[in-house]
Amino acid sequence: MRQRRLLVRRDLIECLLEAFPGKIEQVRKSRRFRALLRYRKTGLLIAVVLAQHGKDRIGDYWRINAPKVEGKRTAIVAFPNEENTKIQSLRLFGQLRFAKSVIRNGRDDEWLSSGRLLTDVKQFVEVLEQVRAETGL
After folding, report:
1. Taking Cα atoms as reference points, which of 87, 17, 9, 88 lies closest to residue 49?
2. Which of 30, 46, 129, 134 could form a disulfide with 37 if both were Cys (CB 3.0 to 4.6 A apart)?
3. What is the pLDDT of residues 48-66, one digit of tens each?
4. pTM summary value
């Protein structure tokens, strides 16, 4: 399961890099740290977070496990399908801050709606510019 999530996250990063060559680059301090994206125009570091889909007796949920350091960064969050094999939707947050690590649709709509929905990966830079303008980053 962990390997599958790592592969999906890596594929998302590669997809973004291919969609915006020269505008976005992948950076990491060392192999020990998670890869971040850098918007070359401003140097803004962007966290790439993959939520994990789960289901219990209450209903569907997404678990978000991200290092605390990434909570202060602009972040793109990928919400996968039920099998956690394919990305279902993407949201871009000015700051990832969230009160809890389990997000339920319906109960946490306020937090979810604070992120800008990306209908296509090719919208990433455009939406990033909008989020930067709104938050003053």
Report:
1. 9
2. 46
3. 998 888 888 888 888 888 8
4. 0.85
